[in-house]
Write a structure and sequence with these properties.
alpha/beta, two-stranded parallel sheet, 10 helices, 51% helix, binds NADP nicotinamide-adenine-dinucleotide phosphate
Amino acid sequence: MSESTACSLITGASSGIGAALARGLAAEGRPLVLVARRLERLTDLATCLLAAHGIRVEVIALDLATPEAVQQLLAELAARQLVVHTLVNNAGFGLRGGFQQATWPEVQRMLQLMVEVPTQLMQAVLPGMQAAQQGRILNVASLAGLIPGLPGSCLYSASKAYLIRLSQSLAAENRSLGIRVMVLCPGYVHTEFHAVLGVEERMRRLPALFWMESAQVADRALKALDGSRVVVVPGLINKVMAALAMSLPEPLAVGLSSRFSRRYRTRASQGLSRSD
Ligand SMILES: NC(=O)c1ccc[n+]([C@@H]2O[C@H](COP(=O)([O-])OP(=O)(O)OC[C@H]3O[C@@H](n4cnc5c(N)ncnc54)[C@H](OP(=O)(O)O)[C@@H]3O)[C@@H](O)[C@H]2O)c1
């Protein structure tokens, strides 16, 4: 029987932070598995990475927001004789509007993609990593998961907070087993995220100092992956906001974040213009 090959698996690799992380991980030389719904995007990226690094790149087009998706993904990995050495849980999206404006199917898709999929994938790959006494998990959360009281971002920030807390506990459980668990909490990043959310126009008004490029974020994340810090916040302004959120008394932190969010985000997420 032929041996399995260790790979880096990246969900949401067809654009933005996921594609940038795939480019960075390709330089490590390990085979890559790129997962998202848009096959053509994945194939184009795979072709580039193969040409640049000469590595094996597999693409798996899947809608991960469906309940059976993780089982399909795991079956694909087994069929291709791949085991996960580095897992990047990155796929995600935002929901527009207040909590009660989302339909239940929308809520289910968000919880599936951003809570259940990373949880299921980590449960699936950790035993192999523990047996091998090596492996890495990089969860892409958000600054929104560290900041309390963000109107217009209820489910999104709650799902990211879940991922942060889960990562912290898993890091503590697995550190002595040689497994690195890290959670990345970016602030605003230029990707397709806000266009998908339908708030791109409004977000352009956010001052430039709040924004980072996906390549910068991926670079900081992969450097930090070599270190030991569990919760990694890239960018100075984001570090300041995270520190304030975690050190101020809760009512003050909630007041500040709600005011900021109302100014730059809520109206946009509710599809309102400044004159409304
Ligand atoms: N951009 C920001 O400001 C920001 C800030 C903090 C955290 N984040 C987080 O960063 C992560 C990546 O987002 P991004 O900013 O890079 O946005 P993006 O460019 O929109 O990328 C999102 C990725 O997720 C994939 N995806 C979405 N729904 C999926 C589904 N149902 N099944 C499979 N794949 C799916 C998309 O691929 P397909 O459409 O091809 O399926 C795409 O590859 C997300 O978890 C997001 O919450 C972003």
